[in-house]
Batch of 2 targets.
Target 1
Amino acid sequence: MPNAEFSPSIDSRPTYAGLVSQGAAHGIMVADDAGAEALCDLAGSDASVMDHAHVLLVGAAAGTVARIEALKPRALHGAPDLDAATPLIKRLLSEARMGTHLYLAGSEGLMGLVSALATAEGLPLDAIQMEHRGSIARRMQCVHCKGITEDVTTDPFICSHCGLTLFVRDHFSRRLGVFQGVCVDAEAPGEVPETQEIRA
Amino acid sequence: MSKLALKVTAVETLSPLVKRFRFESPTGAPLPVFSGGAHITVEMPEGEIVRRNSYSLISDPYDGSGYEIAVRREDRGRGGSRHMHTKVREGDEITVSAPANHFQLDLRARKHVLIAGGIGITPFLSQLKQLGMEQKPFELHYAARSREEAAGLKLLPGAAHIHIHISDEGARMDLGAILDGQPLGTHVYTCGPDGLITAVADQAARLGWPKTSVHSEAFTAPPPGEPFEVVVKSSGKTVTVKADQSLLEALEAAKVEIDYSCRGGACGRCETHVTACDGRILHNDHWLSEAERAEQKTIMPCMSRFKGARLELDL
């Protein structure tokens, strides 16, 4: 699936400029199954970028893993999901030196979470490259109970923690890597707009 | 800008060129606390004119019992630091601005590397106290020409992560060695001469540091120069800027309303539109880009001067 074109919105909404090779600099690359395609394209533009890259694939299919392996990254790691990947991402970040570049590709949820981990380690956002691929599902935080609901594809949606009906906002927390969901029927309980698929 | 009427309670000579001053409230009331790297603007009335210079606070940011600054005497300057050295004594009243900070720490950083050249040590003295309080990892590198000139030596605690580089003793600072291999998420801060700031920025860029991890504060007072005239558009009034006065000081003396903060060409607060310019603006600030300088459509009155027939400001 190609890089999604998101419609212009408030400044808070992240945008993803795409991956550009930083040549011989050390790299940490994190991608999901759809995002791995962006890593292939990156290696296609500059094969040497893989010589210095630690690649972590999250929930990638066996075929995808084989394709990345063929690009001969310096190291290749795998994890079934973001929760399982988090300790490894933290370790890679904690061992890395200044001058290391972070390349993220895939869903907004993956990029949001990993960039939040990286900024918590002091890495400025402008040192993080991101390319959106695949689903436009969002990682949403309920502003009321603070619980996070993964893979939200409809607006409104039901908070998986407190059960409130939440409106999907473009307001994004860079600290947490989540979009904000706000109770949609607080003024008039029960008056809930029709549910629709979220759009890019 | 809120002002504080304080009393000079201590003056101490730190080195042949640097004195430390302590100011406290005459009533003993606590002063506003600040953050590491903040400065105050000190008013120095002399006859009809009031000079205002900004100095970094070197005292503990969380200690409201007083403010301390360290002033290096610049004999070729406009006279502000000379005034501090020769006229200000214990017991004097002194007016200062509330603290403002254009050189704060990025508290998201995992580690802070502080690099000071000469009197550029001053903003780091308050930052050190903040970093200590917050238990943040840091290292400080202080470069000075000679031990005698290094006023900071009397103010720095002895600690393993505080490194002194005295060039007369052959211990020059090696920026490559300092910056290479720092952990991801390190931020570097430089204060001192322009050459040092540029050298750190260049070295960081060579090592692939992101620009937003590299911070600096140039230590600049407005340079004196040839007298010149400016026209204030709203009133048509002509203001003469004397040789040892900055444009901002001349405008203030002429009662022209103008906002300011750092008075050193770094913060951008006093940026002023130029409505007519027949001549050349002598830009001395760190705020305008090369393109903006070339356009001659804006000027930073705190630092910059003018040479030519006519300069009209949108004030």
Target 2
Amino acid sequence: MNRPRRVAVTAPPETGVRSRPVPARPVPETVLERDRAAHARRVRHAQLRRAAITLACGALLLLGLPVLLHGVPGLAAWRLGWLPLGWMLVAWLPYPLLALLAWWHLRRAERAERPDDRPGEDPAPAP
Amino acid sequence: MTGAVVVALLLITVLIGARGVAAMRTTSDFLVASRRTSPMLNAAAVSGEYLSAASFLGVAGLVIKEGTGALWYPVGFTAGYLLMLTLVAAPMRRSGALTVPGFAEARLGSRSLRRFCAVVVVVIGVLYLVPQIVAAGQLLTLVSGVDYWVGVVVSGLAVGITLALGGMRAATYVQAFQFALKLLLFAGPAIWLLLLAGPSLRADMAAPPEFTHFTQQTPVDFRLDTDLVVTEPTVVAVDGVPVELAPGPHHARGDQVWLFPEGAAVPELGGDRASLPVPGGDQWALPLLGTGEAAPLIATWSVLVATALGTMGLPHVIVRFHTSPDGRGARRTAAITVALLGSFYLFTVVYGLLGTVLTPELHLSQTTDTAIVTLPARITDGSTAAVLTALLTAGAFAAFLATSLGLLLALSGALAHDLMPSGLRRLRLTALAVSAAVVPAALLMVRVDVSAAVTSAFTVAASTFCPLLVLGLWWRGLTARGAYAGMVTGLTCSVGAMGLGTALPLGGTAGMLLTQPALWSVPLAFLMMIAVSLGDHVPSWAEDTMLRLHLADRE
Amino acid sequence: MRQANAAAGRGPYPGWVRADGDSDRGGRAPGSRPSPSRTSQSRSSLRPRFTDRFRAAGHTPADPAEILDAGVAVAAGLREPAGSPAAVDALRRLAGLCGADAVGLLLPGGRETWWGPDRDDGVALGRRAHGRRLSEGDLLALPLDDEPGDDGAVLVLAGDVSPAAARRIAGFTADALERARLEAGAAEAEAARLRELRTQISPHFVYNALTTIASFVRSDPARARDLVETFAEFIRHSLAARGDYTPLAEEFRSVEAYLTLARAVLGERLRVQVRVAPEVLPVPVPVLALQPLVENAVQHGVEKDPDGGLVQVSGEAEGDVCVIAVEDDGPGMSPEHARAVLAGTAEGAGLALVNVDRRLRAVYGPEHGLVIETAPDAGTRIVLRIPRFQPGVVAQ
């Protein structure tokens, strides 16, 4: 394969639509129709509520465990089988619980934006 | 042996990145687009990018040094993805912005804010990247016996070469493969070592004996200058010359090897490390951080807050979520990532406990970051130990490479696209320049604990980008001026406090709040952002711009 | 949002109540802030005045570069959307030029920008101006449109500004707005033109595809049906795509539909390799930015060669840029010819490449146009470099 070397070519600058640099582009003025905006407001609120619940559970778990370990120092010494319980509470317990919490939140978050929630088709508006 | 494995691994990684064996799909019937990236694959790629040398090596080392409380670090690293899932993934994906600076511009309409965010990206990126190189340098030093500076330079070169040979692609398949590799090379040896360990060792792991006396003749290889306090007269062979040490403070030079005889009392650590717990002691066994006079509860919370809230602001992670086809895919990716990371971190405790039982003397020389790779030789010998050491080294190096490449790209992107005048947009050159620039920084920062240094990057991210993202994605009232005020507050408080805490070793709760400021700097940044935004005028387009991010895709 | 600000309790100053008699607003504590006129006097002594500079021009000339800079910045800021930080900053500079304490710009349709104190009062005054000049206290509303009407742009100045300076400032602002309006009109026309550019499907290809499908109808009806479906998919994307941008994945689907049809027409002569990294599939690109390039490669690289040829399409991320390349191993062309093709002056070449090139430049800036790598007998490779994220570019 003894091909000639290719040469890179671009359009001459003058034929471009604009020869001056593109101006700083402002934020696109997103304008939502009223129905869509109302729907988006509802969805945002629903998602925020779910997020708050999930995060409260997570915070209770993660910030509460240290309180438990601090309040009951004996946990670090008390053995459950091979390892001290206190260590297991830190080393292993949080991970499955976090994964469960994530799965639970995912399901609720996806349900919150299911298409049957859309305006016009929403049979029972949220109280 | 180990070197060969590391080189082989490096070559494999580079090859996969450069010649799209698995990195790109080759199809004869070219049905590409219908096969979209699955959340599982993408979550593996996120985890592959995220699990750094700090996770692979650093946490286990911190367990030896700071006690079982160090196990909270990976909990925070994982919990970060719960926040990502609940608050960031879906709306951020819908915004289309690949980076936080891009998001700031698109949401708040301010170019100068974008540039400021890019500066923050550079700060976070450097704080994260330098410890990675430090860890890789120490690792190479340990397994091949070269000088530390050689290890650092080789690590820097490895990143640069991988980048030049196709690392710019940041390919999803490569990162997903890296995760599988890391998980295998972390979990496999852990199980293998547990099986090799006899019943008495396993019993010791459940209750490591307090490290007060040397149970056998033990060399301590000081690679840094260290202050020690000897408690009883001890005869120590310093570089082979017997020296009698009287009780009291002594100084070990960074190039010395001290050989302690069997049965000798273990000296205490002096200087600013005096507050560290003794491996196996009561303080060590309490699974909370900041033991000593510092309030353990507050110290643990502060690390948890920093790591969990900082994850969303890491510059190399967010871009990965944009491989998902839509917001829903991004959310699923985040959820699966929580599970994948959890399965990796389940094994850290094994290495931490093994290290405390087998290599407590590393606590004296402060070289616990590389404890993991020394373990196989203590449990078994011959080729099994060599193979295990090689596997662990390879895994740690893979972790280092994957994270460093992602960070380097994010860092160079911020420099080349947001901070430099246009026309100088040479991403590859910038990336090479950055990788060359972090090597000297890594040479200067030998002393840092890898995990602790990485946590400082999380702290800065939590104090700046976390409020920006959370408020920007969910609150219409955020304004550019408010975002500025909050981020400047968060940046100066977190960086200033950590710098002050390092300069003035105060000790106690006050010192801890300086070195781990997340507990107060994050709420302060939030408050500042909200307060200034409330006093500012909210543009009329702000609400719709924010609401659009919550509309499900295809509506 | 405006209501929210009013409700936040910005007390109107006493002059408002007398002029307007709006009692429910006047009920709020009037003395909650220092008198605006006093403020303006104390400030005016500190700030150089536009008018003073004019008067003093003969003796101590003010730095004209500074004033021109400010003027340019104001004009640029007024192009930004109402209420954006850039627009507010433009008004701040405008105030600096004439010595006003506050400046507001009210645009038709309820859009407004305000810099300085007294927002609510000033906006209300401006809304009542209805094309007339109106003053109240030290607030002054100046309509910017020549024809008096209900809904025109109004400039509101607060503070001690001389009538001459106010007139000049109003004239300057009206000019800047007019220019911004013309530019926006040009941009809209441009967008419409770009949309038009993308709907050009080669009639040659449609004809070939349909005759090929027709030839299968008897011999292989199942295949003919598949091909008709593929054709429908291709047409749907090309003609019926909703917005201006589409995810690259969708664009690739159109390419695949095209290639399936082209393979039906050309048979074994067309060999194809498509390699796409998953991380670029969601990148938004202008609709039909890729398909014309593939069509071009098939037409010039494969169709003319009796032995056929290979077309390779690849897409991958390089940092925050998405690099797409379309390559054929056909006869290639001289660089001069390639340049002429991109300039739209080559004879016998279609406008497909020019159109894609212009659209890319218009959307992403001049450095993001097509790059053609070619030489005689060396095949052709066309490269697109598309930013993975560009504010304002969102797939529909």
